[in-house]
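User: I'm preparing a small set of examples for a lab meeting where we compare how different chains pack in three dimensions. I only have the primary sequence for this one, and I'd like the structure in token form so I can line it up with the others. Please keep the answer compact; I'll paste it straight into my notes.
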Amino acid sequence: MLKIPDSSFSLGVYKFESQDEFHSALDTYFKESELLLAQEYIPTEFDWRVGILNRQPLFVCRYYMADQHWQIYNHHTPNGTDCGMADTLPVNAAPKRIITTALRAAGTIGDGLYGVDIKEVKGRPCVIEINDNPNIDAGIEDEVLKDALYDTVIREFIRRMDVSHGKA
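Assistant: Understood. Below is the structure token output for the 168-residue chain.
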């Protein structure tokens, strides 16, 4: 697969089956971006997303692939965009290996707000990407914690602003 680094919602991702398709994708994508990421395609029923703030897990979701598609979003349907289902679990109900892997991956970057995307391959977690601007959508990522999720994020941002202004 090739990915444009600043793409989101399954846009800017190209799966190719042959070397000719690969070279065609290179030509196309290098017109849009100076940098491309190459990544192995790993088919799974869903991707894990672990939301992390200040080195602590906030939420855990499973994002399922769009119907009869290889991505969570299918932008090429007759009716526009089709999106796979999602469900959210309490952090303590998620597999420990998923949480541990997400924390380790995000910890290499810092203590900010991250969304770590993970696929499981034969029971082993594989980090797909770390998002530094993860979506937190009403009814999905906040399904378990509700308003407490937003309260936690806002309190942490206020704390950081206070520290940076010498108020803490």
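A couple of notes for your slides: The mean pLDDT is 88. The chain has two domains: 1-41, 45-164.

User: Perfect, thanks.
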